[in-house]
Each structure stands twice: as structure tokens, then as C-alpha cells.
Amino acid sequence: MYLLDTDWLIQALAGREPAALTLQRLTRSRVYVSYVTVGEIYERAFASANPHAHLVGFRYFLSVYRLLGLDEPTMERFAETRALLRRRGEGLADFDLLIAATALRHGLTLLTFNVRHFERIPDLELYQPR
User: Fold this and answer.
1) Which of 28, 47, 74, 130 makes a 20 to 30 Å CA pair with 2?
2) What residues contact 84, with CB distance under 8 A and at least 6 apart?
3) What percentage of the chain reaches a pLDDT higher than 90?
């Protein structure tokens, strides 16, 4: 089972390989999207020249995936990971940490092209495109 990172979703929306092809191969019922990613995608829509058209396209794309919200166990994992990275002097954006915490909480492999951002998070499984 997989969680889409925002960068993967953006690449897939643009029809770029390997993001789009990988999503076609995976069973949609096994792919999840965090509401954090939804927020990042919506922000991109509102920054565009035609927000309404982008929102319609994003919502259509997202309609086949299951969405995951934030809950107390996810927030605990977020805080634990953030504290660990800070102790090591390694920063990571909070949205990335929330996405990672969501993947960890639900035992999902993260589909991301930002491997360098996420590889320092203990126990986080990352999908490597072939």
C-alpha cells in the first residue's frame, strides 16, 4: 500500500513518467493521499491563472484515491520524528514531516521523488521508481 507525496502527484497530473505509469500499474485501492498533499495541491490551484479549472482537475484526479486525515497517532509520530531530526540538526518542512508521519502511522510506502528529503526518517519505506 502506498501514499502519494505531493511531488509524485504533480508529476502524475502532468502525465510525466514514471509517475503516471506507476500509478496506472498500481491498484487504486492500494494508493492513498494525505489531506496535507491535498492542501498543497489546492494552494497550487489558487496560485494559478485559473484556479477553478485547476481545482476541477485536481478533484477529478483525487476522486479515485482514498484520503487520509491527521489523527493523534499521526501527530505523535510527526512530533517524535521532528524532535529526532532537530536533535541531529537536520531540518525538514513540516508538511513533508506530516506526510511522512501519515505513511508511518498507516504502514504505507511513500511514493516520492524527493528521496533526499525523506531518506533520513527512520522506518519510512520509500518507493524507488524502476
Assistant:
1) 47
2) 122
3) 88
Total number of domains in the chain? 1
What is the CA 112 to chain-centroid distance, rounded? 7
DSSP bridge partners of 2? 31, 109
What CATH number is associated with residue 53?
3.40.50.1010
Average pLDDT over residues 47-72: 95
Query: What's the one-letter identity of residue 11?
Result: Q
Cell of 89: 540538526
Q: pLDDT at position 1, please?
A: 95
Instruction: Specify the DSSP class assigned to residue 34.
Output: E
Cβ neighbour number for residue 93 with a 10 Å cutoff: 10
Instruction: Find all residues with CB under 8 Å of 69, minimum gap 6, and list them.
Output: 34, 35
